[in-house]
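Quick one:
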Amino acid sequence: MLFVGPEFITLVSQIKDQLPGVRTVITTEGGAPEWQDFTAWRDAQSGDDPRVPIDTKDIAIQLYTSGTTGKPKGAMLSHANFLNLVQTGNAEDKPEWNRWSTNDVSLVAMPIFHIGGSGWGVMGLYHGARGVIAREFDPTRVLDFFEQSGITKLFMVPAAMQFVVRQPRAKTVDFSRLKYMLYGASPIPAALLKECIEIFKCGFVQMYGMTETTGTIVALPPEDHVEGLERMRSAGRALPGVEIAILDADGKPLPPREVGEIATRSGSNMAGYWNLPEATAATLRGDGWLRTGDAGYMDEDGYLYIHDRIKDMIISGGENIYPAEVESALCDHPDVAEAAVIGIPDDKWGEAVKAVVVMKPGKEATATDIINFTRERIAGFKTPKSVEFLPALPRNPSGKILRRQLREPYWAGKDRRVN
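Output:
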């Protein structure tokens, strides 16, 4: 079955004949008389339990996450992956911020194609809370949801928090029912966090995780959100049932405050990447440890600090962007000889995509020309925000582009290479 929103009706009409496995097409908001409308289809179904046998090891959701090549990988998340964290330990032992009741009203404001959207939605559903689902992120509509539905919990990425808190209406909205705002997917500027605390007046919880871990595995609770406290720079501590280790290049554990690759082991680690055994083996080792590709360290109390990225991924507005995909679009330009893409600090988005371009001999282009060219080939949020032209790209003896050398001027003076 294929469920189609209005934005994709034309596309699906064009490719329907190429989809022999699709037996039924449902339009979620009408607009295609030849296909069934979702509401009519739903209401025609029986209310009886279909009694389909489901094992906890069965795959519940397959979410796509970009790889270092820019090609999306389908992370297979099982029912057991989702159940692991909610069923670990006794409910009485869980911190207040991680407890739910049927009186909670959860706002699902982040995209459902992210674990931050779908995972958060499933969490509220599991606990019987009311879920208010935003069709798309709109900061003015988020404020409407607070006024109309009395939101008690929500998850947002820092860029979204910034858009909401900077709305002129934000200072007049009643947030009295809001108990906790959970945030993550990218680091948050200290000034923005302080501004949000003043406006929303609720408990804040920072979260660290990834699609491959079915979302959150590390959290910084409200009581650690104290200005001037070293822990405020951390991502928090591992949740119950989650192991975190910092590994060196040989895979051996490192002592506190030694920087290495962050690895994790828990029942929330994905089943694997769909049809990609080699990529699965590289990320999810036989001993159950999942390599995150992020670099960081832990302090003596088990607080995790994100230090740098092992991969070249850029996080802009909570979206993961991989240079290879953008570079491929840049190099499609007939006058571009080669290109490198880096992330540079940006006050609004956390990081912005910057293209470093080498033109072919005798050819010229403006930054606007390059940006407009890529905009026709890749998603808008992946399009470079700025372009620098160089006569040649810096490379090491083996020919690998020295991205760190390109990034350094923009990150000079910062104590870590994430923003």
